[in-house]
Amino acid sequence: METPARTARGFTLVELLVVVVLSSGIMLLGMWSWRPQQHAILELRDRTQVVGELRLAVENLLQDLGGAHKLTISGTTLHIEREEATATLAGGWDGSADEGVEYWRDDDDLWRLDVASGRVRLVASRLTAFDVGKNGKRISIDLSAGEGDAERNLGLRWRNP
Fold first, then answer.
1. What distance in Å separates the CA atoms of residue 100 and residue 112, rounded to the nearest whole number?
2. 3-class SS of residue 118
3. In angstroms, rounded to a whole number, what is the distance separating the alpha carbons of residues 35 and 42?
4. Cβ–Cβ < 8 Å for 124, 54
5. Which residues are within 8 A (CB) of 65 and not within 5 positions of it... i.e. 6 or more apart?
6. Mean pLDDT computed over 47-60
7. 139, 141, 144: which is closest to 158 by C-alpha?
8. How far apart, in whole angstroms, are the C-alpha atoms of residue 42 and residue 137?
9. Residues 90-108: pLDDT tens digits?
């Protein structure tokens, strides 16, 4: 009498170990190839955020400087007195002299104060420098944000009316 042929069911331990080792190797290669891309993505995100913060600061400054009547500097604070038409658009014009707005940096944040209303708001964050200077009638505003490869610098020059 013959014994029936044994049918193979499942995998042997050696076959499973080979599959696990090969799968682990492929996953490890995939992770190593992803690391440079992940680093580049994080770097790009930092650069984008830094440029965005500088853009916000510049847009706010240019909006207020566009209607400037007089610029004064006190330490690292920039005080902008606005023309009548600009103050009227901003609201609260009662015919008296406009008290204007002030910009200053505290830690890494650029702040804006509307002097007449007393409203303070955050303009931009992650700034590493907000330097204001005066040379005759010229006002210079130098902004920096970010660190290392993501650092960006921007300078504004304005003629004091």
1. 10
2. coil
3. 11
4. yes
5. 71, 80, 156, 158
6. 90
7. 139
8. 42
9. 555 555 556 789 999 999 9
Q: Give the pLDDT band of residue 25 (cuts 50, 70, 90).
A: very high
Give ∠ CA 18-21-27 in degrees, rounded to 5.
135
Residue type, 119: R
- C-alpha 89, offset from chain centre: 29
Residue 39: both structure tokens together = 């680093």
Residue 36: predicted pLDDT: 82
Report which DSSP code applies to 8.
P
Residue 73 pLDDT greater than 60, yes or no: yes
Count Cβ atoms below 10 Å from residue 44 Cβ, excluding itself.
Answer: 11
Query: Between β-strands 119-124 and 68-74, what pairing exists: parallel, antiparallel or unpaired?
Result: unpaired
Q: Higher confidence at residue 80 or residue 98? A: 80
Which residue's structure tokens are 């303070």?
A: 120
